[in-house]
Amino acid sequence: MLIDSGDIPYDSVINTDVCIVGAGAAGITLARQFANTNIRVCLMESGGFNLELPTQNLYKGSNVGWPYWPLDSSRIRFFGGTTNHWGGNCIPLNDDDFEQRDWISDSGWPISKTDLEPYYRAAQPVFGLGQEGYDPVEWQSDSMKLLEFSDDLITSNMFQGCEAKRFGAVYRAELLASSNLDTYLHANAIDIQSSENGKEIVRIKFACLNGNRFTVNAKTYLLALGGLENSRLLLASNGVQPKGLANGNDLVGRYFSDHYYFARLGLMVVPEANPNLNYYHKKIRVSGREIGLHFELASAVKKKKKLLSTRIHISKVPWRAYSHDPGKPAINRDFGEKVASKLNSVWQSLSGLEKPNKNRPESYGELSSANLYSIGAWIEVNPRKDSRVYLNDDKDVFGMPRITLDWIIANNEKRSLMTSLNYFARQVGANGIGRVRLDLDEQSPWPWQGGGEPGLHQMGGTRMNDSALKGVVDKHCKVHGIANLYIAGSSVFPTFGTANPTLTIVALALRLADHVKEIQSG
Amino acid sequence: MDRRRRKILCGVITLPGTALAFSAADKGSDLAVSKWGSLPDYLGKENESSVLMGKKYYESKVLSQCEFQEVLSNYYRSIQYCQPGERTVNIVDRLVRDDFRGNVVVNIDGWVLSKTEVALCIRNFLQSA
Ligand SMILES: Cc1cc2nc3c(=O)[nH]c(=O)nc-3n(C[C@H](O)[C@H](O)[C@H](O)COP(=O)(O)OP(=O)(O)OC[C@H]3O[C@@H](n4cnc5c(N)ncnc54)[C@H](O)[C@@H]3O)c2cc1C
Fold this sequence. Notes:
A: alpha/beta, 11 helices, 24% helix
């Protein structure tokens, strides 16, 4: 059933088995798992079916850390959540992202990739994807060949572009048709209230922008408000614990991170069109599916060199567009252009010597854009306790404190990125692919000013750890010390890797639903 | 060997990322050249720009005198002890790849280049000076 919360009687109390708050990728996935079961479920969503500015404004906040998008435009607050405008790129975390890496402080998950594997597979159809895996080797065919690096030091990795992008639109009818499930729109959770001893949640208070107020009492509460908002609601729910719900160990909001994409980190010049490279610089279709390829350092190299993960992307650029970028230092422009055209022509000479080709371009100095690639990279960020979301003094219309984001990316990430790119450059040379120019060096300003942006993959804040001293939720996503409160979404990620998070969010939501069903059935 | 080809042989033969200068005395070069057939017309221009590159490298002192000598001796040794019939172009290609593999590289204005290719460019510049 669909209910507009603005229309129900003031101060109503709704009783249910499971209360899911937030109807984004995580909340909708959870709700679907309970559809048509004998468990009564309420799905509570702040927005309606379309963007409404007063609701979106509830997301406003401030930023004092690493450059970030405004908080009210970096996520979407209506049915379907941020999937209403996400990119749809799906990729699982790597095996080593789950492991504790002794050179990365506070790294590691309390579950392994193997634990999540069945749920990753089950998540595929949620996105309209098939059962093909994420090993690009298996996608090779006559029409797609990977670039081979000797010594296996650089590997190719891939993402899949999904078909079912807008969760709200795709799953709305299915959810509304389910007899045990009530979807409430315009229902803003403003306070989670616990028992006196703080060990159990007894109700969640909701408010509507039209002034209505009501309460939901449930046996189990699942928070799925998105990466930042999960922390905000816990911190703001301070009726029993003054520092916020589940925040006895001062961990809520901490260990926040996103991924950062650095653009124009350098150039790769390739002597002559390398057909295999063509598969890396744009999304391609293979066997009817959309995929994208990129490069990563092999796990053993990261371990040996004590590196964070880096996803190296190349994109084809017309040389002139690149060299005339006003953001680029002049020295690179002049000398770089000379060297690049030089390299290009000497390679042409070489190929001419090896295999005479009458049609070879004779032009000097003008580069064929086929041979020039710009290098960009997604980086993994070290989990840090001081990288955080906290409440500030500003309040929204419900009197709920807004958040300040203080995201930290430090020199560790710069060092790791530089080393990884250097490694890549050497492998490109060692494999006779071409030559690389790196624009990021020790002296480069940090934050890098060559271009880039946050991935809008808000993670951390309610991190997962077996110990309540180190994490907010346990491995089942249950909040430590509270019997009936669970968290879904990337706020539980304790270590971030470089993978876009939503496939993992959905896999974790499927796993959480299984767990809650088990508990509900006694 | 016609005159033009001889002139070029004593000048510069280009390689990935560098310009390799060698004289007819370099082992294997005769054999290699006879396989290559006619050389492209624009190689003369190539010579000019490779010298420029060498100048740039030389003046920036990216390689110390000692490194320069060491890299070149390695190159000469490899030429001397190469397999019969192995072409100079392949020997240099191998040396350059080994440099990248072994982190024997220099960074010039951001370009990550093999020390061998840079040393050969410098040598070419010095020879032409
Ligand atoms: C431009 C852009 C591109 C992206 N591209 C990709 C990509 O290619 N691949 C990828 O994996 N990820 C991508 N993402 C990230 C992706 O959108 C998120 O990871 C995903 O949507 C998170 O799902 P979620 O359910 O945890 O949160 P959301 O989707 O944000 O859903 C949270 C829901 O909670 C509701 N809500 C919030 N507060 C309250 C409250 N107090 N009461 C009730 N309801 C509330 C919101 O209205 C919303 O519906 C992208 C994000 C952006 C912005």
